[in-house]
Amino acid sequence: MSLNCKDLLGLEHLDKKDLQTILNAVKPFKSLFTRSVKKAPTLIGKTVVTLFYEPSTRTRNSFEIAAKRLSADVVNIAVSTSSVVKGESLIDTGKTLEAMKADYIIIRHSLAGASNILARNLNASVINAGDGFHEHPTQGLLDLYTIYDKKKKIEGLKVLLVGDIVHSRVAKSNIWALTKMGAEVAVSGPPTLIPENIKDLGVKIYYDLDEAVKKADVVNILRIQLERQQENLFPSVHEYVELYQLTKERLSKAKPEVLIMHPGPMNRGIEISSEVADSPNAVINEQVTNGIAVRMAVLYLLKKRKNASSN
Question: How far is CA 247 from CA 90, 216, 244, in A?
């Protein structure tokens, strides 16, 4: 059981078989969390480097915990205190890390395609931890696994993504993964935050959240990126709250068993109310736990691929 690739750069180019392979690999690693010693010797002698050019709490720490639970050596590169501030290029930084015998480089970068550039120039496995507005594959995978774990299937489910779709790399990875696995995906949000060409991916658009929520089996709330409000993409936060916040009242119109998800960090009181975030329908904290198991599975599967290639 392995992936047919050296790197994990996005979900757009993975097929259904690859996605199912990852889903199948997650459960054994998640079961490890119930043991008194939550470690496996899978990556003994391997070095995992996290190279984050953007801030992160969940993703970076999740990768670090995942790698350590697989017994890898982990090195965190603080870009603000590295040679990057002296003008070192991305490729040169990557080659330097590879010369230090890094086996995996996990990168987050503000530019779309940064992980692809690194992967083309290195023998080490590169994992995209978010590149610009492009993709966030492991977030997409952990969202996919959470739905699969709770609903016991993906095919035929109606999944609604709500919020800032145009800037969201999470939304794009979710759409690629869910549609390939047979889910019906819809999006809802202000017209200025939804790209019109998203219909080309087989996605439905709802500008009326109340109508969209009624049909959903899963509602995944995306963070409103307040730092982009300077672009005046909607009139005011107050108006957004009135039209698109998932509230207890809106949740009452949904199916009783609807799953509520959020990739974090949450803006409570803006895209989601505290009542909904803390409700029995919400699986937000489970997403965080699942993220560690998913990243363990990805590291394991890439190692299997590299071992197979060297034989």
Answer: 43, 15, 9
Q: What is the DSSP code string of 90-135?
A: HHHHHHHHHHTT-SEEEEEESSTTHHHHHHHH-SSEEEEEEETTTB
Nearest C-alpha neighbor of 278 from the set 260, 294, 290: 260
Tens of pLDDT along 85-138? 778 899 999 999 999 999 999 999 999 999 999 999 999 999 999 999 999 999
Q: Which residues face 127 on adjacent strands? A: 8, 106
Q: Tell me, what amino acid is at 210?
A: D
Cα separation, 15 vs 37, in Å, equals 34
Q: Rounded to whole angstroms, how far apart are CA atoms 102 and 280?
A: 42
Find out whether 111 and 132 touch, Cβ atoms under 8 Å. Answer: yes
CB 29 within 8 A of CB 298: no
What is the pLDDT averaged over residues 209-237? Answer: 81
pLDDT digits (tens, 9 = 90+) for 169-191: 999 999 999 999 999 999 999 99
Q: Which residues are CB-neighbours of 306 under 8 A, at least 6 positions away?
A: 6, 125
Tokens encoding 80: 């603000």
pTM of the model: 0.94
Site of tokens 């996290």 = 50
R_g of the chain computed on alpha carbons = 19
Instruction: State residue 2 phi and psi, 5-degree precision.
Output: -155, 170
How many residues does this entry show for the chain?
311
For the beta sheet containing 104-109, the strands, ordered from the edge strand earlier in sequence to the opposite edge, are 73-78, 47-52, 104-109, 125-131
